[in-house]
Design goal:
The complex is a heterodimer of chains A (117) and B (111). Chain A has no helices and 11 strands. Chain A is mainly β and 117 residues long. Classes of the chains: A mainly beta (117), B mainly beta (111).
Amino acid sequence: DSGVTQTPKHLITATGQRVTLRCSPRSGDLSVYWYQQSLDQGLQFLIQYYNGEERAKGNILERFSAQQFPDLHSELNLSSLELGDSALYFCASSTTGTPRSGANVLTFGAGSRLTVL
Amino acid sequence: GQQVMQIPQYQHVQEGEDFTTYCNSSTTLSNIQWYKQRPGGHPVFLIQLVKSGEVKKQKRLTFQFGEAKKNSSLHITATQTTDVGTYFCAGMGTNAGKSTFGDGTTLTVKP
């Protein structure tokens, strides 16, 4: 158990639908990151939050949105789903401080596997 | 933007053979990290390199950071079946607050 909790583990839905993926970061970590991993693909960075505020944005579609709440958990909302959105969605968290102190080391959750039919 | 290239994409070896994956950045890096993702699993942090020319070892794994801090390598000596998985490098630029992942090298080991 990495300490990063993601729910649900598996989700099957239809095209056009909307889903919400949830992430609880490791205790004490203020940063949350979302990554998308399609079948046999690399990790595509979607978005980062730090202590409730958006810190960095990657290749996140306009149909996708995310937020980090005061208790530091985060949600990734995926709407108007398409077949190509089927993927493994990882949440990761990191602590604060300088890179030398390991602040940007990512701890990943087990992922949420989304299947769009 | 910053790009991180990783080669090879796939590597198939016989158990006992060595394995190396290379990571190259389009820009100078502040630091580089390596992660391992087992089949069906999630990426797990292995190591972070910060200094120019740094070399770190973890048992059979040797990690290097280039002198110019634009490239890195991971070398596994005498691979074992437990080494199978995808190895990712992640480089942090000097101005960026996040790391950019390479596409990973998937290692398979034939017993």
